[in-house]
Amino acid sequence: MHKIENILKDRILILDGAMGTMIQRYKLTEEDFRGERFKDSTTLLKGNNDLLCLTRPDVIETIHREYLEVGTDIIETNTFNANAISMEDYNMSGLVKEINIAAAKLARKAADDYTKQNPDKPRFVAGSIGPTNKTASMSPKVENPIFRAVTFDDLYFAYKEQIEGLVDGGVDLLLIETIFDTLNAKAALFAADEVRKERNIALPIMISVTLSDKGGRTLSGQTIGGFLASVSHIDFLSVGLNCSFGAKDMKPFLKELGRLAPSFISAYPNAGLPNQFGEYDETPEIMAGQIKEYIDEGLVNILGGCCGTTPEHIARYSELVKNAIPHKPAEKPKYMWLSGLELLEAKPEINFINIGERLNVAGSRKFLRLIKEQKYEEALTIAHKQVEDGAQVLDVNMDEGLLDGVKEMTTFLNLMASDPDVSRIPVMIDSSKWEVLEAGLKCVQGKPIVNSISLKGGEEEFLHQARLVRQYGAAVIIMAFDETGQADTYSRRIEICERAYKLLINDGFNPLDIIFDPNILAIATGIEEHRNYAVDFLETITWIKKNLPHAKISGGVSNLSFSFRGNDYVREAMHAVFLYYAIQRGMDMGIVNPGQSVVYDDIPSDLRNLVEDVIFNRRPEATDELIEYAEKVKNENTGQTEQKVEEWRSYPLDERIQYALIKGISDYLEEDLAEALKVYPKAVDIIDKPLMDGMNKVGDLFGSGKMFLPQVVKTARTMKRAVAILQPTLEAQKASSSGNNKAGKLVIATVKGDVHDIGKNIVSIILACNNYEVIDLGVMTPPEVIIQKVKEEQPDILCLSGLITPSLEEMSIVAHEMEKAGFSIPLMIGGATTSKLHTAIKIDPKYNNGSVVYVKDASQAPAAVSKLINPTTKNSYIKEIKDEYSSLRDNAVDKKEGLLPLSEVLGKGMKADWSEYITPTPKVEGRQMLKHIPIEKIIPYIDWKFFFHSWNLSARYASVQHIDDCPSCRQQWLNSFPEQEREKATEGMQLYKDAKELLDQLVFNKAEYINAVFGIFEAYSDNECIFINDICFPMLRQQKKNEKGEYLSLCDFVAPKTSGMKDFVGGFTVTAGIGANELMSEYERQGDEYKVLLLKSVLDRLAEATTEWLHAKIRKEYWGFAPDENISVNEMFALKYQGIRPAVGYPSIPDQSINFLLNDNLLQSKEIGVELTENGVMLPNASVSGIIISHPKSKYFNIGNILDDQLEAYIERRGEDAQLIRKFLGANLV
Questions:
Q1: Which residues does the UniProt record annotate as the domain B12-binding N-terminal (predicted)?
Q2: Structural domain 647-735, CATH architecture
């Protein structure tokens, strides 16, 4: 058969287009995916495209032939997810081998048929190997960056099984594609290499990476250069780009790839960028015009299509590639390539590579202590400092007798990978134990250096380890050590280095990746044999550079001055002099302290001469003289560093502290507070004066509208950090600022049965910023706990919050208990379901001893509290409120008069002709669970208007989502607002940016926060109930008189039992908070209220967005009553779809207790992690539940107020305690 390598030199080959896009064209059902064999599967199988190789092979083979018919040279097997890890989602990991064999045979048959038709145009089969749905370089848990959901070994075994199946099925080559994490790809390459060796076959490998954004990096953060270095150890056929972009946007990155890669280049872009429905709009004509540029400019050797492309797109390629000149691969690298997230090419102009030495438990007592104490985050700051000081590689060593080296190396490298500032540079994995080195190699997605292997264990062991180093994709340091021991003379050094070099070269090791460490040993020890160590090392450098082509030289420079421990200046002077001469001779890199401040030219001449005498062994007495000099200058520090400071750092101390608070800057808090402790007599004075002055300014700015909620929250975070810094001093001085100069004290709580606390937290923060002491009791607080805390704390005001209707009754209970306990302090009421009218009618009369004050939102709280605490305004303010409440109660009688008796409204609902609309039978009946829904699927469905509303900002700022991230675009958007509003709009822009960054972080870490359960069941209406799966769901009907004379109930939209028509109703519960508590708790531990509120508000939006997404899926797919629906997300927000999805606790189902019927009886929502409080509130907080009705005339409405006659009838149908139901319907009763 024709060799593909030879063909690629002469012409551009065509790869097929998208398999998934073509499968979607067939509109396959769940039954198609199941087939007869899997009809009883308990897992939904629709979407498991690879399974179709077994259940619908006719579809897959037809798609292959469609692509071959239009001129495709290489077709991919339908095995993108056919690995044990991805198949876990469908409980089908045991079918991996079978699926891959079947898929390869299907493609093989089709390709062979077309090759027979035209032997001059051979067709090839590429085994498609996807990235799996997990990542080895990143943690799915934001709060635990060390955690990995999958390991290198997991991936290796999964990939090996897949590759063996593909080879058994007869593929010509492998295509490792859509690489978003290079460590995953390295595991696949390792497995492929193993299979090639075991079967003794030359199996070409194509590699294709996907970039996550226009910054040109993979999802795991690597640049193109960094990625190429990571895979440069493999002899692959081609490297390329796929997915992510359309052809136009992919082009600049393709050029960069072609400039660097010494291989053939492939490209298979998407058909443009996805629209808001995830569909691709670029036509074959448009895409062909862009692809033509690739060909005309000689950028590619293999061309295909990814998402959204079809045979119609690929058909255009055949004509374009005729007589085209293929890309000419770049030359092989002349210099060593290393990488972290970015490429480090050891070019001559670099001169010397600094390898940071401080992440070594043997060389840094601080690092050892932190690792032993498992203070990994603090240990990571040492890495940061090394990078800041100029380290180009970071050496990591965990060799210490009491440490588990494998565990600690894995843990710390995983943590380093989570920090892009650190992981951008390569790692040197340093250990004397092979198992530790190998553990490290399995953690690093870049191309690291292994330090080290040697001939100490003989040639067989040496070559075995070297081959594995190469297979894992690393460069290697060879220690000058053999079976007889360490080389300590010039002759022994060159003997061992030459022997090791020849062994490696003859075994196929790339000479560019060979680094020798000829042993830098301690000099000036007083031992005669040690005097020539430095000279011998320098001479060895010269010999290696002359005799061992491309080999590099490294060494541990601090070993040289070991005898001068404790005298840093002399040690650094010795290192500077030694490196000066070593680099001249060709030393390429060294393990050094990058923060070393002593420079060769700055060393006093007398010291420099002494050091040179010792290094070059010029005079026997030089050692003694250097020791004498060292004693004289011990611990001296020569030279100072200059720091550039920001302008505000030059302000007076108090102004600096206030500025930091107002701007939310905590970088200099420790420095400024340390200075303040010298100025103020006590730590408490710092809190009461400059800190509280700053907080008072914040309160004034917020009150005047010049500062906005997100800024206030950041300020509170900074204040908390300042107090935490001062806390040890406060305790030592037995001092406290508590209550001394506070404006007042408040107790605040979310009432029993209610878990909602975003509003409460905002109020707490704002009041704290106004110099009030706030004691927050949290959520679900029983009345007895509140009363007890009021007794203990004696606050000036009690504040109650609640979001759900039953919370209104709970607030009334607390008011009554306050009355019974004899309290008279003001009671402040707030929350989404509260209102001034309800407060006047239901709560205020229960608390005659005191006053009840309703506040609409957080912005009103400071003014209300100020009036209630100020003696000059308190009485008049309370009288004003009581008069207003009395008036509201008097007028409430009129509202009752506007309601009709239940008997009059029962026959006046929506009139539907049930013979006109026949409810479609659902495609999927019964209960279904969707776990770990990817957040990136949900983000397009977020309605940002409500996000801004939750932060007390205008919904108009939601338009920020449509502007490009360029300065002019942002300025143009800001200019669209009146001048006096632009500062607020700027804050809105920043808030949106922070929210997007948080979402990106959750996506990056593959946070598994979102679950859903839904069911579509037979249903009918009868006696003001909807019976869903024979469970009675009582409904309410409007009673407020209206001109239309129509009084709606949800029962109106479901076929009555008497009609004899078959109807269906869906139920759903979604949550976006599973597992989010860990991240929330981490933010709380950090005292970061801003991030806590940001996360909560984002999770709430994700829950609502998931509801929107799920409803659309149900309408079009699972139920399918609107299969041809074609509306935008904005049109969804505008309710342009068929049917409705009323949520429990909302206007048409105000009874929160319906959640017990829906979640416990119908959906069993506990299985997706949703629990209910005693008041029917769902936990996690970011959850939504409701029902789905399909009738075209159904619509949303508000039940409004009801009379006792309907309440009594409802209580009877509900079958629950009357008092309990009254509590749940409190907001509807008059």
A1: 644-738
A2: Orthogonal Bundle (1.10)
